[in-house]
Design brief:
- The complex is a heterodimer of chains A (196) and B (465).
- Chain A is built from eight helices and eight strands; from the N terminus they run ββααβαβαβαβββααα.
- With 196 residues, chain A is an alpha/beta fold.
- Chain B has 465 residues and is an alpha/beta fold.
- In chain B, 31% of the residues lie in helices and 17% in strands.
- Chain B is built from 15 helices and 19 strands.
- Chain B is globular.
- Classes of the chains: A alpha/beta (196), B alpha/beta (465).
- Chains A and B meet through α4, α6, α7 and α8 of A and α2, α3, α5, β8 and α11 of B.
- The complex binds iron/sulfur cluster.
């Protein structure tokens, strides 16, 4: 897993679908592994493959026209189950950024904990992004975490995105939450003394 | 300053807040199961970090277990390995495990409350989104990912930003045939599958106060289905009566002291919520879902929204969903033939749910073509059902009473609904493939599921009672 992210410039894959839930991202029957690796193989399993294992031609991830490190999806991406396997699968499939107009809370946390950047854009910007990719699948999208901007190379349209300062620092520097929590261990122990 | 129920508990658990960032939140109770814990144990081992407070953790095996012949080894190899991994990890790290064969085994969100482990005022987490169930006791309970499971195991803390707060007031009394599952399906249909994202929800009002603890759990359980991080209900005498005498509930003088503290857990009169929603209980009818997210719900006697009722930009997703379900826009759902009935899951597998179903089906028989699975939420629920003779009622009706586990709620273990089949399910999710590849799920209450089992089609319970 690549730790630390800042600038990502890539073509993108348009998944023009709302309410993409984590059961679609990675169906439960593929959650039996006890390690974090290899989930990319089953990313969007039932949308990508027929029951006989042959690829479904009309699904965007099977369309050779589109590729890249950025997935662009409709609103309420990642809703449903808390399975972090969803973030692992996306990251494992070579994606570094997911763009949507709205993310489910747990998915967003899981993504951030795995250095997968969720970029929340306005509805209007999302529609422009879909249009730009569909018009020219080779167009690039530039995501700059430091500046908190996302820019469509084709049109020059740009938008600021929100991320809290703490998380931003973590992502830029490759820090984990757990590293921080371990570092304040004595404060936690002190707290416990007065916590009934 | 006036505080909400959430704020009272939150403030007592914040160790500190990082400038411009999240707070360090202390966690009292941590539930784990076989699916979302192995990578967390592994992560800690890689860091050479011991578990910080193993006594705060309770483990069970539920997602991957078979619900028939539990005394035999698990047939599916990967499932068996995952369950064994949990056993090994718990042993190694001295964690209390209620695994297969244990009299306390069951779905994680069923056993916590029934054992009295879940208590008011606590912070509770689990690597499972339906942890919100425990909020019914007036606790802050929410689901977390595996990296966060690792954080809690290693430090008993999480970094969390304070969510926005929403209160949903349900006032008045419920109509005949309407139960708590209908209340929550109604709320989700009203505000959509993402309507509470970013919020923590408190349920209040006379209709909520009148509910039993088990009915309250059904409501809090599905908070996540409208995007909420969690749901909660202020504790009251119903809560205390439920808890009193349970295995891990406080006892003696400690009990009195605890109850006195719990009585302070309510939203103050002038407490401020970021959003309030008011619902009249009388408007709620028996509900059912017709689509592939829990927000796509309607009255069983209503009609599926016509194309003209859907916003232009949502039409694509809407029709994809109906195609998957094999249903028509604008059509009625009553009379739709069903193939399976699943009564179970952390939403509706408690003893009251089973009693409710039994009291309706007593003396009736299931429709010939329907397969009916009843899956108790825990070993204790199963034993209680047998003690009350409920198992005999089910047997006479042609229902199969299985053993405890998540079962057909999630299409992971052996219990799956076959492709293309319709299943009326008392669980919480109707996503594509949730109950098995290409299975079609209709979410409903135990009563609506029971009447479908008898008639073999979607029916309105009000016409039968
Ligand atoms: S019963 Fe279903 S929703 Fe509940 S914990 Fe199990 S899989 Fe999750």
């Amino acid at each position: 897993m690549s730790k630390s992210i800042n600038k990502i410039s890539s073509t993108a894959i348009p998944l023009d679908q709302e309410n993409v839930d984590t059961d679609q991202i990675i169906p439960a029957r593929f959650l039996k592994a006890t390690s974090r690796d290899g989930f990319g193989e089953n990313l969007f399993r039932d949308w990508r493959y027929n029951s006989d294992g042959s690829p479904k031609k009309d699904f965007v991830l099977n369309d050779p026209t589109y590729s890249g490190k950025i997935l662009v999806a409709g609103k309420n991406f990642g809703c449903g189950s808390s399975r972090e396997h969803a973030a692992w699968a996306i990251k494992d499939a070579g994606l570094d950024v997911v763009v949507s107009s709205f993310f489910a809370d747990i998915f967003k946390n899981n993504a951030l904990n795995n250095f997968l950047l969720p970029v929340t854009v306005s509805d209007g910007f999302l529609q422009k992004t879909f249009a730009a990719i569909k018009k020219d699948p080779d167009t690039t999208i530039d995501v700059n975490l430091e500046a908190q901007t996302i820019t469509l190379a084709a049109t020059g349209d740009t938008e600021k995105f929100e991320i809290n300062n703490y998380k931003k620092t973590c992502l830029l520097n490759g820090y984990d939450d757990i590293d921080y929590l371990i570092s304040i261990r004595s404060e936690i122990e002190n707290f416990e003394k007065s916590h009934a | 300053m006036a505080k909400t129920l959430f704020e009272k508990i939150w403030d007592r658990h914040v160790i500190k807040t990082i400038d411009g960032g999240p707070s360090v939140l202390y966690i009292d109770k941590h539930f784990i199961h076989e699916v979302t814990s192995p990578q967390a144990f592994k992560g800690l081992e890689n860091r050479g970090l011991p578990l910080f407070r193993p006594e705060s953790i309770v483990a069970t095996a539920d997602h991957n277990v078979p619900t028939l012949d539990q005394h035999l080894p698990i047939k599916e190899e990967l499932s068996r390995v995952q369950v064994q991994k949990l056993i090994d990890n718990c042993k190694k790290h001295h964690i209390e495990l209620y695994g297969l064969g244990h009299p306390y085994q069951g779905i994680v969100h069923v056993i916590g409350p029934e054992l009295g482990i879940t208590q008011p005022g606590m912070t509770i987490v689990c690597g499972d989104s339906h942890t919100s169930t425990h909020g019914a006791f007036g606790a802050i309970a929410f689901g977390i990912g595996t990296s966060e499971v690792e954080m809690v195991m290693g430090t008993q803390c999480l970094l969390q930003s304070k969510p926005k707060l929403m209160r949903i007031n349900v006032e008045g009394s419920l109509n005949k045939g309407v139960v708590s599952k209908d209340i929550i399906l109604y709320i989700i249909a009203k505000i959509s599958a993402s309507g509470a994202t970013g919020y923590f929800v408190e349920y209040a009002g006379s209709a909520i106060r009148a509910l039993s603890m088990e009915a309250r759990m059904t409501i809090c359980n599905m908070s996540i289905e409208m995007g909420a991080r969690g749901g909660m209900i202020a504790p009251d005498s119903t809560t205390f009566d439920y808890l009193k005498g349970r295995e891990f509930a406080p006892k003696g003088a400690d009990w009195d002291k605890k109850v006195a503290g719990w009585k302070t857990l309510f939203s103050d009169k002038d407490a401020r919520f970021d959003k309030e929603i008011n619902i009249k209980a009388a408007d709620i009818e028996p509900m059912i879902t017709y689509g592939t997210n829990p927000g796509m719900g309607m009255s069983v006697s209503g009609h599926i929204p016509a194309d003209s009722e859907i916003e232009e930009k949502e039409k694509h997703s809407y029709h994809k969903s109906l195609d998957y379900m094999g249903l028509q826009a604008g059509a009625a759902i009553k009379g739709k033939k069903v193939d399976y009935v699943f009564i179970g899951s952390c939403t509706n597998s408690r003893i009251e749910d089973l009693r409710m179903v039994a009291s309706f089906v007593k003396g009736r028989k299931k429709a010939e073509h329907v397969e009916v699975w009843i899956v108790p939420g825990s070993k204790q629920v199963e034993q209680q059902a047998i003690k009350e003779g409920i198992d005999k009622v089910f047997e006479a009706a042609g229902f199969l009473l299985r053993q405890p586990g998540c079962s057909a709620c999630l299409g992971m273990n052996e219990d799956k609904i076959p492709a293309g089949k319709y299943c009326i399910s008392t669980s919480n999710r109707n996503f594509e493939g949730r109950q098995g590849p290409n299975a079609r799920t209709l979410l409903a209450s135990p009563l609506t599921a029971a009447v479908a089992a008898i008639t073999g089609e979607v029916a309105d319970i009000r016409e039968f009672i």
